[in-house]
Amino acid sequence: MIGRKTNGDGMASPCSNWSIVSWFEQRVFAWSDKPTPKRFAIDTLIVFLTMLLATVLGAIFYSLDMEACIVITYVLAVLCVSLLTVGRLHCLVASALAVLFYNFFFTHPRFSLTAWGRTYPATFAVMFVVAFIASTVAVTLRREVHASQLAYRRTQVILEADEALRRCSTREQIIDAIGAQLSKLLEAEVIWYAEGISGFAPQRHFSAVSATQTEPIVETPMARRAMENRSAVGAGTGCFPSASGYYLPVISDNEVIGVMGACLGNKTPLPAEQNEAEAVVGEASLALNRIQALEQREEAAVLAKNEQLRANLLRSISHDLRTPLTAISGNADVLLSDGDALSADKRAELLRDIRSDANWLNATVENLLAITRLENGNVQLNTTVELLDDIIEEALRHANPDICQHRLEIEPCEDLLLVKVDAKLIVQVVVNLVNNAVTHTQAGSTIRVSTRSRGSEAIVRVEDDGPGIKDSDKAHVFESFYTVGRTLADSKRSVGLGLSLCKSIVEAHGGSIVIQDAVPHGCAFEFALPRYELTEGTQEDAD
């Protein structure tokens, strides 16, 4: 029965463990009408054993005075020979032996080739003709059944390969699928030859349960020739037919990516098997082209997304940088032209505005540079063992000056929390989180910064009692250029890089960051870093 193996839950496992035909069908499909010396000897033995059995049955019928059944028994024996042997020669011999055995054992005088009776010659002739015609018809029918079974098998193999390949989503899965399929089809170990670290050499081996247990022979030159010729070489082909393997190139996008080699030993693949193997490899080439087309579409989509992000970045920067620069320029012009006419309080207010805008510009540029280096992998962490509360204290000194308009609460951990981090980058994380709370909450609101220990992690939590963030926005707050309430930054003073930078820095240190709802309302950002434990050796080094 055509089928495939399943996994534990009964579902078919993609790209692996395909059974092609049942044991009986394999025996029928393996039948060849081309006799071999070994097969000739076996068929000869079948002929004599069948005639011997027919003679024994004939003796039983003779003792029961059922002589009419003896002729039919010999005709049936010839039919059995036609079904069990190869070619017509043994059928002809069996027909002749049936007449001779009948004449020798069951005609008068018995145990002699002499037959007394005028009807015997005609009986012998009719018996021979009927037996031979019946056996010929049986051989013809067997061959037609054999041909139809081969056609059925070829179609089924291609369908199985097509279904298996459609389930594959990567080039490696496709290689595994066709390797396993060819191993079952040719009943041999299959070797995948491709370019690797050591050059063109065997990369993978596939062995089906039904594969012939022979020591695989690696023929790299044959595989290379198949790659160069872009066609099958080896056993059963016109190119190096004396090779012990059968080699098929696998082509993707008009380029040979490797060669499948079947280790056949002394066996030569039948033409039908070669056609089926080439059909399977052809299906694999189509699947590889499909995968490559998908990869190209994905690359095009990524490029389009990058172009869109670049355009969004330019739009955001041109807007968000122009606004504070315009304010700085305007305030500076006022101070230069009418500074003497302004009151001291007004001049101080203008100067504070200039400082605030300049600080924001500086922070934005720092974030842009930092996230660019992180995404390009150009940042090397300069890690040192630091006290986490010291990092928090340093970060608050660099926070937005508008934090003085809020109520700031600091809750340090009772234990000393040590972390091995790049202190400058972690300070930037805390500054971004605190400034984010300052920007998105009303003056007079509470901002709480706390630290605590959780197992092997040190936790930093920055929360506020502002309006909070919608659930629909929480999944995107760590994306570049995303700002709450809008798809992209385009109006408020926020390029949308601060939280994305926080996530990149924390993950670069082996930590994690999450967003939560504060109680009773507001927003909380919490990030975890691996805690550093002092041992006796490290403590002596620290001292």
Features:
EC 2.7.13.3; 543 residues; single chain; transmembrane helix; His_kinase_dom; Beta-Lactamase; Helix Hairpins; alpha+beta; 5-stranded mixed beta sheet
Short description:
Residues 316-533 form the Histidine kinase domain. This protein has 543 residues and is an alpha+beta fold. The protein has helices spanning 23-29, 37-63, 68-84, 89-106, 120-166, 171-186, 220-229, 271-338, 344-376, 388-397, 423-439, 471-474, 498-508, 536-542, and strands spanning 3-4, 18-19, 189-196, 199-206, 233-234, 245-252, 255-263, 384-387, 407-411, 418-421, 446-454, 457-464, 512-517, 523-530.
Structure description:
This protein has helices at residues 23-29, 37-63, 68-84, 89-106, 120-166, 171-186, 220-229, 271-338, 344-376, 388-397, 423-439, 471-474, 498-508, 536-542, and strands at 3-4, 18-19, 189-196, 199-206, 233-234, 245-252, 255-263, 384-387, 407-411, 418-421, 446-454, 457-464, 512-517, 523-530. The two termini are 76 Å apart. Helix 3 runs antiparallel to helix 4 (89-106) and helix 5 (120-166) packs antiparallel against helix 6 (171-186). By secondary structure, the protein is an alpha+beta fold. The protein has four domains: 3-162, no CATH class; 168-292, GAF domain (Beta-Lactamase), CATH 3.30.450; 301-371, Orthogonal Bundle (Helix Hairpins), CATH 1.10.287; 379-538, Heat Shock Protein 90, CATH 3.30.565.10. The protein has 14 helices and 14 strands. It has a five-stranded antiparallel sheet with strand order 4-3-7-6-5, with helices on both faces. Strands 9-11-12-14-13 form a five-stranded mixed sheet.
